[in-house]
User: Fold this.
Amino acid sequence: AQSVTQLDSHVSVSEGTPVLLRCNYSSSYSPSLFWYVQHPNKGLQLLLKYTSAATLVKGINGFEAEFKKSETSFHLTKPSAHMSDAAEYFCVVTYPGGEKLTFGTGTRLTIIP
Amino acid sequence: KAGVTQTPRYLIKTRGQQVTLSCSPISGHRSVSWYQQTPGQGLQFLFEYFSETQRNKGNFPGRFSGRQFSNSRSEMNVSTLELGDSALYLCASSLLAGGSTDTQYFGPGTRLTVL
Assistant:
């Protein structure tokens, strides 16, 4: 069975400081991992995805994530937070031959001016 | 290229009624998946259609059903609405069938409120 755990339901950072959103996965197979962002009253937008190529994945808007198999983690980072980053972030897992995406419970990111 | 569109964006219904939601995927995409998002349960998979066939179904009662047309547009139907069906219903499309590493692109969702 596959699952993801987002370790923080809410993260607050000051504008201009680094962002770290944590995600651990559980999968019996080599997973594909995604981070999606959801702004209020909007659908989900793909930030980045890992599909067994480079372990450090760069996404849109300055976000990146590193796949660490030994730690079963896929944490999302950004060097400098911007007010527009305030949103909910979802870590998602699937695997080749699997049948659906499995979503984490989400992390709400608040940016303090 | 136009994104995934969902209609209507907002719906208010009463208990016992039924509702139909529509999703138009990105042109060329043959897979459409539906998700329910609620504050309590988060994002849950409802079902996926690929080339007019339901490939997979989540753990929802039979009141939830769907279909896909030859142009890949999909509809989702919920019969005998219950208060707990109030949610944001999201549709996602992808080129390939679910379970691949293909990216799913999400629509803005339909906000259903059941009174």
Summary: Chain A has a mean pLDDT of 91. The two ends of chain A are 41 Å apart (CA to CA).
